[in-house]
């Protein structure tokens, strides 16, 4: 039986933080600079760790490790989401001061969509056991696709189903109208390009959620652990975008690492009835994969930088 108090308390906390975020700290549109983004990112990570500590204390070590692993999976896959945000914003020339507003409302939509997906996923895995094999195979195939995806092309606005549907419902202004999503002109309510970009952000997050949520269900079947770890990772996604924007190019081996994580989790699901990999081992393997990827990426970036400077050094000599 689901205990309602933790769910109500957590949802109240999320609502309060979102209200403070948009209503107090980001009431006026402005460019989010690196220092502000780092402070927000540190705040969200600190809150997540504090919540995780509470899970360890109230629900025990096993649940605590499951929460940590789920959060780490979602956080790492969120980095791939940041790639998409950068491509979308650059492709449609979204002014920097309006990007936070788009991400805020995009993430509100993502919270609702993920809540629904998690509820459906919990029911599926509870009553249809064979689904674990279907999703396990799906994650392995998705991991293989990650290796083939160069990530060099932004999703096409005109081909997005939600955007095409929106254009049929309402006319769109030719230019951005400040931070507004809708504006009334000559008595006609029109959408702005900023709203279309928001739709694109939300639809791309839905695609990522279809990958990440089954991956977390491979770690735990506790809906509260799945939901809260997922939501904490999503709440920190805006700050993560502003922190990583401009630095992701240096993480050359991130895509292979995410592919390896998805393949590992998919394999874990396929082997669930034969051999169960415990949560601590899963956490260690995922952390190791990410650590190797980041370390190798930093080494490569340093080597490439030295090679690019070598001709200049030899010319001076």
SSE topology:
Blueprint: H1 4-25, H2 34-59, H3 61-91, H4 96-127, H5 131-148, H6 161-169, E1 182-185, E2 188-191, H7 193-217, H8 223-235, H9 237-244, H10 254-270, H11 279-316
Antiparallel strand pairs: 1-2
Structure explained in plain terms:
The structure is a single chain. With 317 residues, the protein is an all-alpha fold. It has a domain at 60-169 and 200-301. It contains 11 helices and 2 strands. The protein has helices at residues 4-25, 34-59, 61-91, 96-127, 131-148, 161-169, 193-217, 223-235, 237-244, 254-270, 279-316, and strands at residues 182-185, 188-191. The chain has a two-stranded antiparallel sheet. Helix 2 (34-59) packs across helix 9 (237-244), helix 3 packs antiparallel against helix 7 and helix 5 packs antiparallel against helix 10 (254-270). The N and C termini lie far apart (75 Å). The mean pLDDT is 76.
How would you name the oligomeric state of the polypeptide chains in this document?
single chain
Low-confidence stretches: none
Q: What is the topology, as strand order, of the major beta sheet?
A: 1-2
Helices and strands: which structural class? mainly alpha
General form: globular
């Amino acid at each position: 039986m689901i205990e309602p108090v933790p769910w109500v308390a957590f949802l109240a906390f999320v609502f309060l933080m979102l209200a403070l975020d948009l209503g107090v700290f980001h009431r006026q549109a402005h460019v989010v600079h690196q220092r502000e983004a780092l402070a927000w990112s540190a705040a969200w990570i600190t809150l997540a760790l504090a919540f995780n500590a509470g899970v360890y204390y109230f629900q025990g070590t096993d649940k605590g490790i499951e929460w940590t692993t789920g959060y780490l999976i979602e956080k790492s896959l969120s980095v791939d989401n940041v790639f998409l945000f950068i491509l979308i914003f650059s492709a449609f020339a979204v002014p920097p001061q309006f990007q936070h507003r788009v991400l805020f409302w995009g993430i509100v939509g993502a919270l609702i969509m993920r809540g629904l997906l998690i509820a459906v996923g919990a029911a599926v895995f509870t009553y249809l056991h064979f689904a674990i094999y279907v999703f396990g195979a799906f994650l392995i195939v998705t991991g293989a696709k990650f290796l083939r995806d160069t990530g060099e092309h932004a999703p096409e606005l005109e081909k997005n189903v939600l955007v095409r549907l929106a254009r049929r419902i309402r006319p769109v202004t030719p230019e951005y109208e400040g931070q507004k999503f809708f504006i009334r002109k000559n008595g006609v309510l029109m959408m702005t390009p900023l709203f279309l970009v928001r739709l694109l952000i939300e639809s791309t997050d839905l695609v990522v959620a279809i990958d990440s949520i089954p991956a977390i269900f491979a770690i735990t079947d506790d809906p509260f652990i799945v939901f809260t770890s997922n939501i904490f990772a999503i709440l920190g996604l805006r700050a993560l975008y502003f922190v990583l924007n401009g630095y992701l190019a240096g993480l050359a081996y991130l895509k292979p690492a995410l592919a390896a994580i998805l393949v590992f989790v998919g394999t874990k699901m396929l082997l669930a009835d034969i051999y169960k990999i415990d949560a601590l081992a899963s956490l260690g393997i995922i952390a190791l994969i990410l650590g190797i990827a980041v370390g190798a990426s930093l080494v490569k970036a340093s080597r490439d930088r030295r090679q690019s400077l070598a001709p200049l050094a030899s010319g001076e000599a």
